[in-house]
């Protein structure tokens, strides 16, 4: 039986070498990359063409493609390490695998490429590897080079691809061959880039798809489009200087927006799909340095370096991301299949290796020679961003964005939670449903849900009839950015939502206003952020440590109001409060929600009530057990009501005393006069 030391079966994830590297300079980041690669060695196939990462979960594509992912995605880290002059003891394993995988006579041949084949994605790191590490190509015989030409570009140039960022992957397949004098398609390379240009909108932002799609997540910058534009500018800028200059200018433009997605703790805001790629969220910043972009004011290389290194350090504290074999798991801060997309195989998380692009930056570049700096003191506390439909805030101890209008271009699991939520936080993450029955399973963090069947099934915001960044002028003459959206959860239920960011005097609050025209009777549930449902996060709870939160205890600075009731006794009176009293939960910080006096409910519809939803485990990205303070109500058919919800969030922090977690709770923001007038008029 395992000793009761927190170690199970001899495995303690906090002892992973990745968690132990002290990050200070370029050589320490090189060592960090090696700790990511080392655990993969036992999982190479006999001839080294594939890596079967631990885990037997299935995906929408074939098993061989999942093992090609396992091989190709860590190659990003190896490529950047070697391109920057670093070394790695097992580099030859990938060199051998490249020869075998594309050899049709090998029993480890990767297989012929078909239309819309996952193999196309992995051609991007392969092409980049050939371009940046010529020894991979030079070590091959003429026959092996011909195999690469046939597999890497020869076949894929005539195949259909999804009309998304995938087109960049074919660009890099051709570019890798071009840089080595191999056979490639100049026409296809050029036509793909021209088509990708149609995704561009303005201010550096590109959609992950054509007109009719509003999807600007991390694929628009760190995971794909901006990142690969910068790699292209560096790798092919001599032959395509005009386009390279344009790509660099776009990077300068978008950098002034993207800097608002990272907080002083090193966390980035989880938003959208594929966040299992974890530290790839920061790869844009290393790519800026790699492409020799001149930073726009007020950004400095010390700020950029700080964003990257703090981010990597934060992930070093998230030790539960590792499997017992030392490989990356599917999940975010812990293994989690609820949040996974249908294309997330056990090898998929290694797209995180993009973060190591900074290792290809020379050691004398100011990215490495500058002292780390914080960016938050030099940029606005609130920033409205028209193109992604976001307002970001640095107030209140975390980096938060309000969101309107985005939606994935195809049916994706939990798409409403990943793109349709009202607010996303670097400290509290977002939550996804575990199933589709009752609020506990839907886990409606930062969402407004509707049910027309008594609370069994719920619908939330996904597609908007209208969504826009607007401004409102207050009585003091100051303009405030707001997000306005109109959405229809049922054909006869229409919602207008206005999101108002935090203010300097109420930094932990934001406002959500909903004007609802209900043609049928509907129940509503308006959720705050989710927070850890565990006692003892900042106190010694003794034998109760880790158990569910009790009623709020001011002496312990911990608990919930009203009382957290189990999922089966929801009608217990002490589990409910009035909407004006609101609901809050205190553990690793505090979150809460309350109805303000401006609620316009009309006669005969009752008041909103507040309770604590005990969300299903593993629904939140960051904490495996969470609760969600929630306002609930029932709207009669034929009614028009207006909700004004004030949402509270104050995360824990090194300099935040638990005794201050609730300091702002009894001082919610006042409702601006313009807002009251607007919701009255409709």
From TrEMBL:
Residues 25-373, 380-677 form the DUF2264 domain. It comes from the Eukaryota. It holds the Pfam family DUF2264_C. This is DUF2264 domain-containing protein.
